[in-house]
Amino acid sequence: MTPSFCVLICWLALPLQGLEILDPEEVEYIRSNTTASVGGSVTFDCGPTVPTIFIWGFTKPGTENNVALAYNYGQGPKLQAQSSSMGHIRVPENTSALVIEELQKEAEGMYTCQALYDTDDGARITFYFTRLDVEDD
């Protein structure tokens, strides 16, 4: 079991009382890359449907420190203060997408959405990894 998976499960344990994960080893990983320009905007998707619970994280190049940017565990999306140096970050209503407008060079790095879907067949966890390269204008 990866450390990221353990952190996700431990962090979500309280709001997930009663949610049964039938096979926690069945985790899907989806990877992509995108490029955007300083001052522009970018949208990161966290799956084709809104997950029951999601956490957006960011890892700056050259580090292993994953910092939470936004999350939603059933109470509506919440943004973290440390995201302000990247540009204007938001999670549009009724989505799990992460949008960054007025993009700054500091936004370059790896974005991770940890998504938990509560399905009729039990919980399903998917990690969406997107590498963002920010070009100067």
Can you describe what's shown?
By secondary structure, the protein is mainly β. It has one domain (30-135): Immunoglobulins (Immunoglobulin-like). The protein is 7% helix and 45% strand. The protein is built from one helix and nine strands. Strands 1-9-8-3-4-5 form a six-stranded mixed sheet, with no helix packed on it. It has a three-stranded antiparallel sheet with strand order 2-7-6, with no helix packed on it. The radius of gyration is 15 Å and the shape is globular. The chain starts with a helix and ends with a strand.
Short overview:
The chain has 137 residues and is mainly β. It has one helix at residues 3-12; strands spanning 27-37, 42-44, 53-59, 66-72, 78-79, 88-90, 98-101, 109-119, 122-135.
Key attributes of the depicted protein:
137 residues, mainly beta, Immunoglobulin-like, six-stranded mixed beta sheet, 45% strand, globular, signal, Ig_V-set
What topology does this entry show?
Elements: H1 3-12, E1 27-37, E2 42-44, E3 53-59, E4 66-72, E5 78-79, E6 88-90, E7 98-101, E8 109-119, E9 122-135
Parallel strand pairs: 1-9
Antiparallel strand pairs: 2-7, 3-4, 3-8, 4-5, 6-7, 8-9
Pfam families: V-set
Keywords: Signal
InterPro entries: Ig-like_dom (IPR007110), Ig-like_dom_sf (IPR036179), Ig-like_fold (IPR013783), Ig_sub (IPR003599), Ig_V-set (IPR013106)
